[in-house]
Amino acid sequence: MMSAEQTVNRLQLGRETREVEETAAALVLRPRRLRRLDNLRRLVRETRLSADDLVYPLFVVHGQGIREEIDSMPGSYHWSLDLLPAEAEEVAGLGIPGVILFGIPAVKDAIGSENFDDQGIVQKAIRTIKKTVPELAVITDVCMCQYTDHGHCGIVEDGRVLNDETLEVLARVAVSHAAAGADVVAPSAMMDGQVAAIRSALDAAGFTQVAILSYAAKYASAFYGPFREAAESTPQFGDRQGYQMDPANAREALREVALDIEEGTDMVMVKPALAYLDIIRQVREAFDYPLAAFSVSGEYAMVKAAAQRGWIDEKRVTLELLTAIKRAGADVILTYFAKDAARWLRE
């Protein structure tokens, strides 16, 4: 039987417990406490964007003294080889680890012969950059569209883009880029089996150290318009929906990535980035592989156009978009904003 004193103590404890519970219920949770100062925000920041994450695309052309701004991509240029060293040095000086090269040939034909010519524009550009800034990682786009007179990403016969016949050409292109000094080749044609064909050809030619970054999930997107102007790669008939992915599909992207990994790719890519953040996240969660995302020309052009009209703050919008791409799961971001972003991140 409980004594009177024990009864009083128990009642007192009960009151105190209720008071604590009532006080806790009355508390207002205030996440804003950690947003009050810039240094507090920095301490708890979950996603950190840096120049280390970026790759800068470069368009290279034949000729001399050419630094020609691309109309639909303000701030991006066609570069002739004599002016390329200074641009490469600037990129490296900003702490950007690598560039990806896109070439515009002197002559186009049905199979894009300059694409695998030792004296092709990209091959010359690789050697120029490696001579100037050897530590800069050089990635090359391996495709056919800007080199062919029909503008498609493979060999065309009777209006059809042939898959298996294209693989041999893509392999020749990759080997020629590796021979010129490329560190990474990036097949973007979306031909089935392209990674396996390229890996086999590289290894057979002794380029076992050259890595592959596959455009594993490349969508048939409307965001590529400015690039097609810059690379002079618009299809002369039809479109690319027969080999690039349907923008409505997500599960298919995981199958494409899995296939490229099985075929021996070293890194995988989702393209475009902004409208496909959900795909980046799904690929990140499904595969423990280095993941790149290409923030494409249309994304760049929209920001530039709105900024020129004074509708948005270009710096803040750009860094927010790039941070979102990284937050979604990308390890590497290919972006035409790379130089600007690297400068802004230093401020």
Could you describe the 3D structure shown?
It is a single chain. With 347 residues, this protein is of the alpha/beta class. The protein has one domain: Aldolase class I (TIM Barrel, Alpha-Beta Barrel), CATH 3.20.20. It is 42% helix and 19% strand. It is built from twelve helices and twelve strands. The protein has helices at 4-26, 38-43, 84-93, 121-132, 163-180, 194-204, 225-231, 251-263, 277-286, 297-308, 314-328, 338-346; strands at 54-61, 67-70, 73-80, 98-104, 137-142, 155-157, 160-162, 184-187, 211-218, 267-271, 291-295, 332-335. The strands form two sheets. Strands 1-4-5-8-9-10-11-12 form an eight-stranded parallel barrel, surrounded by nine helices. A two-stranded antiparallel ribbon has the order 6-7. α4 (121-132) links the parallel β4 (98-104) and β5 (137-142). The longest helix has 23 residues, at 4-26. It is elongated. The protein starts with a helix and ends with a helix.
